Amino acid sequence: MMAPAAASPLTYQPTNPSFGGSPLNGSWLLQQGTSQNIYIREKAASAALQQRIEQAQQTATATSPANNFAAIINARLLAAVADRITNAIFGENAQQSGVFVVQGTTISFQRIEANVQITVNDGSTTSTVTVPVGF
């Protein structure tokens, strides 16, 4: 004895939204295609490695003993120059006016009545400060 067969009609439903599939499949299909693209993965890995190498080089350069020593020497020299300028403006034998040039920065001063006007020009910006003589 044979049993009757039952079937329903088959209907094709495309997956890709470009061909009539569900629009919710679009991002999933894009992600699948991108994850399978070897060129994009290799390029991203290479860029990440290059960035890590550059960061390591910057860190090593920024914190090297030679750079630290050079920064300390530079700061001490600038402090000594600032002390000399301050003595020239406000010291025992204070001058009426003067100009100092330090590493491309021009510092000029002049006495105007009971004040000293100090102008600092670094080549792109100019700052002026007026200080009372007996500060």
Task: Explain how this protein is built.
It is a single chain. The chain has about 140 residues and is an alpha+beta fold. It has two domains: about 20-60; about 65-130, no CATH class. Helices cover about 45% and strands about 20% of the residues. It is built from three helices and four strands, in the order αααββββ. The chain has helices spanning about 25-35, 40-60, 65-90, and strands spanning about 95-100, 105-110, 115-120, 125-130. It has a four-stranded antiparallel beta sheet with strand order 1-2-3-4, with helices on one face. Strand 3 (about 115-120) and strand 4 (about 125-130) form a beta hairpin. It is rod-shaped, with a radius of gyration of 37 Å. The model has no long low-confidence stretch (mean pLDDT about 85).
Write the layout of secondary structure elements.
Layout: H1 26-35, H2 38-62, H3 65-90, E1 97-102, E2 105-112, E3 115-121, E4 126-132
Antiparallel strand pairs: 1-2, 2-3, 3-4
Biggest β-sheet: strands ordered side by side in the sheet: 1-2-3-4
H/E element sequence? HHHEEEE
- Rounded mean pLDDT score: 84
End-to-end CA span:
119 Å
Number of helices: 3
β-strand amount: 15-25%
**Poorly predicted runs of 5 or more residues:** none
* Main sheet overview: 4 strands, antiparallel
**Count of DSSP strands:** 4
How much is the radius of gyration in Å?
A: 37 Å
Q: Structural class, from secondary structure content? A: alpha+beta
Quaternary state of the chains: single chain
Number of domains: 2
Gross morphology: rod-shaped
The helicity comes to 40-55%
